[in-house]
Amino acid sequence: MSGPDPLLSAKGVTKLYGRQVGCKDVTFALWPGEVLGVVGESGSGKTTLLRCLAGALPPSHGEVVYRPRDGEAQEIYAIGDARRRALQRSDWGFVYQTPAEGLRMTVSAGANIGERLMALGARHYGDIRTTALAWMERLEIDKRRIDERPEAFSGGMRQRLQIARNLVTGPRLLFMDEPTGGLDVSVQARLLDTLRGLVRDMGLSVVIVTHDLGVARLLADRMIVMKEGAVVEEGLTDQILEDPQHAYAQLLVSSILPA
Amino acid sequence: MTAMLTVSGLAKSFRLHLQGGTLLSVIERASFDVAAGQCAVLAGPSGSGKSSILKMVYGTYPCDRGEILVTCRGGPVDVAKADASVLRRLRRDTIGYVSQFLRVIPRVATLDVVAEPLIGLGHPPGEAKERAADLLTRLNLPEHLWDLPPATFSGGEQQRVNIARGLAHRYPLLLLDEPTASLDAENRAAVVALIQEARREGAAILGIFHDAEVREQLADRTIDVGDFAQAA
Description:
The structure holds 2 protein chains of 2 kinds.
Chain A: E1 8-17, E2 20-30, E3 35-39, H1 46-53, E4 61-66, E5 74-75, H2 81-90, E6 92-95, H3 99-102, H4 109-119, H5 125-138, H6 155-167, E7 173-177, H7 185-202, E8 205-210, H8 213-219, E9 222-227, E10 230-236, H9 237-242, H10 247-254
Parallel strand pairs in A: 3-8, 3-9, 6-7, 7-8
Antiparallel strand pairs in A: 1-2, 1-4, 4-5, 9-10
Helix pairs in contact in A: 4-5, 4-6, 5-6
Chain B: E1 3-16, E2 22-35, E3 39-43, H1 50-58, E4 65-72, E5 75-78, H2 84-93, E6 95-99, H3 110-120, H4 125-138, H5 155-168, E7 173-177, H6 185-200, E8 204-208, H7 212-218, E9 221-224
Parallel strand pairs in B: 3-8, 3-9, 6-7, 7-8
Antiparallel strand pairs in B: 1-2, 1-4, 4-5
Helix pairs in contact in B: 3-4, 3-5, 4-5
């Protein structure tokens, strides 16, 4: 009984910063429609790994292989910058912890959402605006704020805007780095709910980095636990949370505050 | 009758790294099988490893040794060795697990919570919601609650939503961990009737029921987990 082909695979991905290890020898596969949580404490290499996977940081060793909509699986650093950038605009999204990194703060909310559509060739202003309004509604952002700049938005609304900006082109794969990191608990819960619905409705595959096991519990089908740049345990979310095997995974799970 | 589930030589211990690496042995050697259309009840005192067995069969607990063969369309699959993608697929179409606790999904309406597993299997939403409505009716959950998320429901109501969700798809193998605990007599009878119906339709059922009356109504066979604690 073998599953379908993976959408994304990491094979021995290692990133060295001089003699400092970012991540080392990370191997896993992500299947279509699957949400993979990458957990571990600060400095464990989660973000380095995510950037390697997302085409933003070439690994020192190893391969990142992506299977496009209608084609052969390809190593994403071997296909050339233009092709990789095209994938980043159409097939993938990247949600930063700090919305200011993923948004253009000095243009309107509507323009932020429309930018990826225009990069893919959309030219009709009315259509772009209609699509932007629909995505604001889907992410529960007040549509009357379409002409405001994200500078005027709260942290939670900025994050929703960043997600809308990423999803407007219907990507298949979303990378998220602590997407609920800087938010109040109540704002965080609502955003997680929204994300959960979007993942299910759009059939998205997701790699989400978080130090918060509660976030992983709510969103992830499967988890990898990282320590000092290496994967120490991998398994279904309920397995990692209920019966972690590695000493560090046990420590991490025992540190969750009861809900 | 062919076995739907065949467990052999199963062993489980917990290594407690935070308690100086203490090794806690729970199951030394468990072997049994459950046929389609049969309900086997795990019996034994609290702490004897009944829930651990269910969790190993579901893939939540890795086991130390042994085989957990589940009959699938493509042939038997060993849960003990299956990787995450295979386990996810087994859980989607073959193995159902119902405990007394609802894992609340915030802001999703009750009817959708119950219909979700069927929609995930590709059933048309209308048909899935019809089945969900039928189950909720039989479990006496008032219709005015169906459009609300179950997060604010009472414990007993949440438990019935959970049972409806767990039984919505007709899983060939059902793992039931005290699904009737703390329900009143009327609702307990409704749950028992649903489980009997699943069995009639050919499900293999492995369950834990503390209530003696429920056990009597459901058990075709009792498996004494106490026997699994000593090495054979």
